[in-house]
Amino acid sequence: MSEDIVLTETENGITTVTLNRPDALNALSTALRRRLAEVFIGLKSDDSTQVIILTGNGRAFTAGLDLKELGEKGMNTSSEPATAESNPDLQAAIREVGKPVIGAINGFAITGGFELALACDILIASTEAKFADTHVRMGVVPGWGLSQRLSQLIGVSRAKQLSFTGNYLDAETAERWGLVNVVLPPDELLPYCRKLATDITSVNQDTLREVHRLIDFGWEHTLGEGIAEERRASRAENQGLAAETLEENRLNVQARGRDQQS
Fold this sequence. Notes:
The chain has 262 residues and is an alpha/beta fold. It is built from 12 helices and 10 strands. α6 (146-154) packs across α7 and α10 (205-220) runs antiparallel to α11 (223-238).
């Protein structure tokens, strides 16, 4: 099991997916990208998984594409046409898994690794986490959404600062800029993420899936289109909700609120 380049562990509806090339800073080799995509494609239909935690083994979340491999093969140089089987879309596999993905950023998240982090729904960082976009230093144009998603999260000026310089961003600044939600000591990172995931497993899963879809829809569309889609979904999903169900849910929400305040 320790030789697997992607480790998975499922408990109580939470699947932890761990990139496992620590000696290579979890660099995204072709084999690792393919295997990680396969794992997420499988988790989409896995009824035992409600929430996914994505993290890395060792000092890095992932240092990005495997530069040693690229130095030997180049990019997009294969004469054989890529297929979904030979080269699955990793970004699509993560973003279309249909379940909340918590990125537990334990260390370096560089370039392609930064883009992998941005594919997650929620980012929680260790104090050891560091982010960088080195596309302009490598002479490679981003293709996994970083040039579009980063500015929506932290603002255009800050995104340009990172992408134009290739400089590192520490965890505390990433939190201040709104890139990550919380920064924790390394030994507290996964326990916190598991507690957060447990909270998510306790909600109405049908409603969660629809709210998840609506937020992602708004990310890709205009505000007006997002509001219209929300209204359409609200009418469709809320029609016929029984008073007894709503009263039971109200009591449960109030009880939970009292527990959290005590």
